[in-house]
């Protein structure tokens, strides 16, 4: 039986996750989706809960979806759902896990890689983060959890864009791109987002079609420009992003995010053994700070691409498609983390090239 595609839905308190889930649970989309409310410990916040009964409860919806509230071990909950599905007691073909608004998505994502039974029954499709356009700038300033949720995202959905002007949305998008240049951004006001913007994104799946988002390299170049720009005393440039520039200058001291992304790219091939040793040592030292990392690699002597990715200390790789005869071989890697030493990573990776 094919593994069940699973989506982690995250976002800070009040971002609109539950509004989005309620639409998914009641709209006629033809999919049978199991929604898991993953409540950690005693953290009960009324507007974050769809099913308010205590313990673990499964509620069936009219459109074929089911909603399950879990207090406790997510591995146990996923395994239990898979067993009930195999026994024909319930039917679903997708899973959406909603984390609490203060949760770090990392341990939830790691669940899919650390337990053999979960790995056999489920496939992590993507981490989707809902961001409140009205309050996000302040939340990102004040709460590391908000930065982590953006850093882990494979897809970002902006909510409440009707409450802010277009210039503020542009400034927020620029900041989100600096934190995580690999996650495309779209809107989800009042929970209105096409199901295709939430499910089957294949953002986490290793497969031979996987390539990095082409915009992330451009975002890295933009980041270098913005970085220099933010540290200047005044904005003297006359360009299309003048308003955003003025905003950053005004709030300069408040928007230095601990979580950020950087990119490595080279047309030279890697030495597999040296790269494996280097990445292993980096994960050992900086693993807790490494939120997400992902890449498509050219290995010396190999005719196929190598796709690698990781979450914290868990790292994996897989063979991708063959290099095309006319295709320029090269490696593209993106790292998203908290206060990672970019220079150490870049120089170390350069030493792994043939």
TrEMBL record:
<dbReference type="Pfam" id="PF02492">
    <property type="entry name" value="cobW"/>
</dbReference>
<dbReference type="InterPro" id="IPR003495">
    <property type="entry name" value="CobW/HypB/UreG_nucleotide-bd"/>
</dbReference>
<feature type="domain" description="CobW C-terminal">
    <location>
        <begin position="259"/>
        <end position="353"/>
    </location>
</feature>
<protein>
    <submittedName>
        <fullName>Cobalamin biosynthesis protein CobW</fullName>
    </submittedName>
</protein>
<keyword id="KW-0547">Nucleotide-binding</keyword>
<dbReference type="Pfam" id="PF07683">
    <property type="entry name" value="CobW_C"/>
</dbReference>
<comment type="function">
    <text>Zinc chaperone that directly transfers zinc cofactor to target proteins, thereby activating them. Zinc is transferred from the CXCC motif in the GTPase domain to the zinc binding site in target proteins in a process requiring GTP hydrolysis.</text>
</comment>
<keyword id="KW-0378">Hydrolase</keyword>
<comment type="similarity">
    <text>Belongs to the SIMIBI class G3E GTPase family. ZNG1 subfamily.</text>
</comment>
<dbReference type="InterPro" id="IPR036627">
    <property type="entry name" value="CobW-likC_sf"/>
</dbReference>
<keyword id="KW-0143">Chaperone</keyword>
<feature type="compositionally biased region" description="Basic and acidic residues">
    <location>
        <begin position="223"/>
        <end position="246"/>
    </location>
</feature>
<feature type="region of interest" description="Disordered">
    <location>
        <begin position="223"/>
        <end position="252"/>
    </location>
</feature>
<dbReference type="InterPro" id="IPR027417">
    <property type="entry name" value="P-loop_NTPase"/>
</dbReference>
<dbReference type="InterPro" id="IPR051316">
    <property type="entry name" value="Zinc-reg_GTPase_activator"/>
</dbReference>
<dbReference type="InterPro" id="IPR011629">
    <property type="entry name" value="CobW-like_C"/>
</dbReference>
